[in-house]
Each structure stands twice: as structure tokens, then as C-alpha cells.
């Protein structure tokens, strides 16, 4: 079991928690969300990090076929970065954003995140996290958000500007499940 906490825990676009501990068991199942304000837990068993916790990345392209993508593309502001990167700033619309890097691996997103940060100025960090995790899972028919009893590869979004709620050129992702070996 591991317990981790950061300033913000992004459960879904409608549920963004502050001062929360996320507990995962050895099978990567989220077993509990604790509020730091409740005091009903052992702090000494908690690892604290700077950033935003979220569920794992989801690639629509990897989890659905091209036919399915064409069926929802009118309802979302969908950008596919699996083969090419933007050259102009991405425009915000009334539709939810989906950023697809063509793989569920955070390593691919980490390799292009400094470059992408220049083109995502119109979007808050919460819109970007939802675009990489929540909405892709939703359209792929997967379980969305961080909820108890959900299997997840917990991610930490580091070096984000929490005051301005923006991605920075130094922002990176770290998989938190790999920390279980130190607890």
C-alpha cells in the first residue's frame, strides 16, 4: 500500500480536491481518499509531493478505432499528436478538449510537453489534465476519474504553475505506482 498527497488531486473536471491523500493498494486499486482536514489517518505513512495527482493517461487512438474517433470528433475539441505536433496555438472552443498522443505511456507526453506548453496557453492545467485523462477515458468507454475501488496508474503533474493554473515548459509527469517499493 502507498499513500500519496499533493496540493491538488484531480478526480474529474467536476471534482478537484485540495489537501487530500490518495491510498493505493499493491494491485493499483485506489482504496481510499482522505481529507487532510479530517485527521483520521497516519501521516507518517504518507508521501507528499508538489503538483497535481490524477488518473493515468488515456489515448483514444490506442483504445478505440478510427471509426469511433470520427463519431465523437464533433462533440470534442480533439487533437491527435501521435504523428505531428502543432505549429500554432490551439484554439479553445465550447467543446471539451482531448489531447491524444497515440499511446497510454506518459513517456511520450513527457517528451513533447515542453513543446506543447507553448501552444496550450488558452487552457488551464485542469482542462489539460482532463484532456489527457478524463475525456479520453470517457469516449473510450473506460472508467473515468479517480474514485475508490478503481484500478489506476496514479500520475503526478509536476512543475505546473499552481497560482496561474497553467502548464509550464518544465512540466512533467511521474507515475506514482512505482513508489510502492519504498513504502
What is the overall silhouette?
globular
For the largest beta-sheet, the strand count, sense and barrel status come to: 7 strands, mixed
Q: What is the averaged pLDDT score?
A: 91
* The CATH homology group name of the largest domain: Urease, subunit C, domain 1
Strand content is: 25-35%
Say what the CATH topology of the largest domain is: Urease, subunit C, domain 1
* CATH class bucket of the largest domain: Mainly Beta
**Alpha carbon gyration radius:** 16 Å
CATH architecture of the largest domain: Roll
**Overall SS class:** alpha/beta
> Total domains, how many?
2
Total of DSSP H or I helical runs spanning 4+ residues: 5
The stretches of 5 or more residues where confidence is low (pLDDT under 50) are: none
C-alpha termini separation = 7 Å
